[in-house]
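Form 7-S
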Amino acid sequence: MMRYLSVFAILVLGFVAWLFVENRKMYPVDIFSEENVERVLGSEIVVFDNNGSELSVLAASTHRRYLKLSEMPEACLDFIVASEDASFYEHIGVSPWAILRAVFMNLKAGRVKSGASTLTMQTIENLYGENKTLWRKIHEVIAALRFERIHKKEKILEFYLNQFWVNLNGR
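Output:
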């Protein structure tokens, strides 16, 4: 029995190691650099209608301004963290409790009813995500762990808030 457990443990560890190697291919280290993230956030925005047809392209230099965290109202920061990820300052980029809660609720409902993405995972998804497959979510978890090792919480929150049109009346 111990022999089978040992083989199983080796296979699981090998799979996890392979996942991390694949994740580095999907998200190379330089993609997480502060300069690269700010470049992505400062790029143009394509606006689509309900049918997926392109309506307009908003040029970064005329429609977008990257804000530092110190330029944002404290109440806005508190609100976003409280509503999107109350344990943001306590977790390591991933919330195992939120994942377990979501799995339980989704299994109980028989469909996807609840998510478990942290602000860090949402930042990764919004910056680099293409689809919402389970495989992609697994890679987002690993990428979030890596992202948190590179950036401080305040910088991640700054990146997160600069992804959306959260300015006064969209101006």
